[in-house]
Amino acid sequence: MDITMLVQAISTVGFPIASFLLMFFLVKEDISKLTDAVSNNTKSTELLCELIKNINKESEV
């Protein structure tokens, strides 16, 4: 295998692999942020449900 074939193999295979790895890490980071956002929204929704229940109980009295 001469140097030209080696350079060609790296340029054709190396770039797609590097692109894939970069996209993988970026998507992984975004999914982590989305998971945190959903978790925070769940906590807020649970708190709002408790507040609504308390308001309904107070209005019945």
Number of helices: 1
Low-confidence spans: none
Task: Estimate the global geometry from the Cα principal axes.
Answer: rod-shaped
The residue-averaged pLDDT reads 89
The largest β sheet comes out as:
none
For the termini, the CA-CA separation is: 88 Å
Radius of gyration: 26 Å
Q: What is the total tally of β strands? A: 0
Strand content: under 5%
Helical coverage, percent range: over 70%
Helix/strand structural class: mainly alpha
Element-by-element helix/strand order: H
Structure description:
The chain is mostly helical and 61 residues long. 95% of the residues lie in helices and 0% in strands. The protein contains 1 helix and no strands. The termini are far apart.
Features:
rod-shaped, single chain, 1 helix, 61 residues
List the helices and strands and how they pair.
Layout: H1 3-60
Outline of this structure?
The chain is an all-alpha fold. Helices cover 95% and strands 0% of the residues.
